[in-house]
Amino acid sequence: MPRPAIAARDTSIETYRARRDFKQTSEPAPSPPGLAEREPIFVVQKHAARRLHWDFRLEHGGVLWSWAVPKGPSLDPADKRLAVRTEDHPLDYADFAGTIPEGQYGAGTVEIWDRGTWQPQGDPEAGIANGELKFALSGTRLHGKFVLVRLKPRAKDRTENWLLIKERDDDVARGADAAVLEQLDPPPAKKARKSAPRSKQQDTPPVPDAVRGALPSELAPQLATAVLEPPEGDDWLSELKFDGYRLLAFKDGGNVRLLTRKGNDWTDRMPNVARAVGRLDVAAALLDGELVALREDGVSSFPLLQQALSDGADRTLFFYVFDLLHLDGWDLRETALIERKQALRAVSDWKAALRYSDHMRGQAGAMLRQACEMGLEGIVCKQADGRYRPGRSKAWLKVKCQGREEFIVLGFTPPAGMRTGIGSLHLGYRDPEGNLQYVGGVGTGFSDRELASLRKTLDALAADAPQGLVYAGEPPDRSITWVRPELVAEVQYVGWSGSGRIRHATYLGLREDKSAEEVMRPVADPGAPRVPYSPRRGSTVVRASAPAAAKSPPKRRAKAADPPATVVAKAPAREQGTVEGVKLTHPDRELWPGISKRGLAEYWIAVAPHALPEIAGRPLALVRCPEGIGGERFFQKRAKLGFPKQIRAGFIEGQPYLVVD
């Protein structure tokens, strides 16, 4: 049954012409339509305008029927995507990619996201008129049957609204929305790009300013500087920041080597990636990129990467390549980054284990917001005309979505309750003066296998408290076993306390590819004043013991002949700390692994503005854990003498409860 007609709306090509000044914009002007002697094309263009959206276009009658899809297409039938009908575009627009200047209609960056052919199911003009257009797509990212369904108009509607829906067929992919498809599939090549035979290209530089040069045998990679805000302007290219291991891939004829940023040869650990590099249709190349494992939603995951490496499952890994430094006898390091990336995209079809790391020009703020909404780590912004310079510089900037850093492992606490291996890791970083700045501990995020493996590794590194250790606030926990500061751990956390401790940290894994010397001060560290650490301030330096928790032998006075490695210092009988003016007894007592009483108090301070409106005036019960989470626990419903005045007694059907005012 035909769908109800709506008021006529001008979507003609003349509307397209009227909205644009073709002296100002590089968008194509309309040209007389020709008769197509081929299957009609479709194109999807990612458009970072005032609001990011995807323009979905179908060729018909010499023009492109067009819809703006705010959330992008999906291969999941459950995703019914709003598609707003826009004016028809000229057929030449299918090849348009670039930046529309400020002040022009649709100002922003346009890139080709997918393209291919489409096959209407029935009469397409009748489908448009009736409000139900069925068709099949054959593209790089989108394929299979789809339907566009026009929504019933409302009086206040100023646009012609449709829904773009994937129909159920063999091409359905659950959860495969635009963000996932962008990660898992390579971006489509432009029509005009055709690779010439390599034998003909070797005599001509692949990009301007390239110079003749031998393939390096090794290279220190260029590194990014951490900043809090992304740079502005089209002078910057923005890429997604991957959560993986940096790799340099060297191809010299039939010989392939994969080196980490520390220069370790991982070729044998990554045979699938090495084979993919070896199959490139080039004589010699040097690729820079990131080795990653992907979650089901297409987001890179460092814990999954570590698990895959541990299990030898390299077939589940991908090498995302973002730079090309050498090609067939030409050294590209002194050429502009944007030129290197154009040459890089042309060297492969980017399938299987090799993936091209795409970019956006400008729009760094919009890309960062999108990355954070997708749960990604952040973005890396690079100067578009930048040359490749080994080491850290401000030509590359990294902006993270959340607290996520690498820290030096300084020590660990013993396990408690049913836990084995370790209780928590204690972390820090080295400041420019060479001091080790203590930042607190992390006790969550470990698997049972990691707990056992870490204990074995840390036992071999047990040592005295490191030289130059400084801290702010309360001294480090007295049960810490210190280790040589050689390992690097990556953690995620929600912020910093005023005393320079990371809050609510989660362990992500050890960074085999990084050395302790590389760990720098995090840009978000509040820089709380720190004092030199001394064991006599309340912590005990002990040698590593058996992995299982055990009672310590009776303490005895150290003699002059005792080995200097073990120093026992008596802790204060009653540790005290203050959070927002409230005194805490035993503030460093672990309530959960890696979470102290102080940490719990700081958490509630942070969430109070959001939590208190929902808690105040409601019946509550108190769970008492006097010996921590591993000891005896009980409920308390009655208010007692000594409770703060903000906690009072309340009753529901005669039963007592606590109430917070």
Features:
D-amino Acid Aminotransferase, Chain A, domain 1; 4 domains; globular; alpha+beta; 661 residues; 34% strand; OB fold (Dihydrolipoamide Acetyltransferase, E2P); eight-stranded mixed β-sheet; eight-stranded antiparallel beta barrel
Task: Reconstruct the topology from this structure.
Blueprint: H1 13-18, E1 41-48, E2 52-60, E3 63-69, E4 81-90, E5 98-100, E6 108-120, H2 124-130, E7 132-139, E8 143-150, E9 161-166, H3 178-184, H4 198-201, E10 211-212, E11 222-226, E12 236-240, E13 245-252, E14 255-260, H5 271-278, E15 284-293, H6 302-311, E16 317-327, E17 330-331, H7 337-346, E18 354-356, E19 360-361, H8 364-373, E20 378-383, E21 391-400, E22 403-413, E23 424-430, E24 436-442, H9 448-459, E25 469-471, E26 481-482, E27 488-493, E28 495-496, E29 502-503, E30 506-510, E31 531-532, E32 576-579, E33 582-585, E34 590-592, E35 595-596, H10 597-615, E36 619-620, E37 622-624, E38 634-636, E39 647-652, E40 655-660
What does this molecule look like?
The chain folds into four domains: 13-177, no CATH class; 209-400, 2-Layer Sandwich (D-amino Acid Aminotransferase, Chain A, domain 1), CATH 3.30.470; 407-537, OB fold (Dihydrolipoamide Acetyltransferase, E2P) (Beta Barrel), CATH 2.40.50.140; 577-660, no CATH class. It starts with 12 loop residues before the first helix and ends with a strand. Mean pLDDT is 80; it is low at 1-10, 32-37, 185-201 and 537-576. Strands 1-2-3-4-9-8-7-6 form an eight-stranded antiparallel barrel. 14% of the residues lie in helices and 34% in strands. By secondary structure, it is an alpha+beta fold.
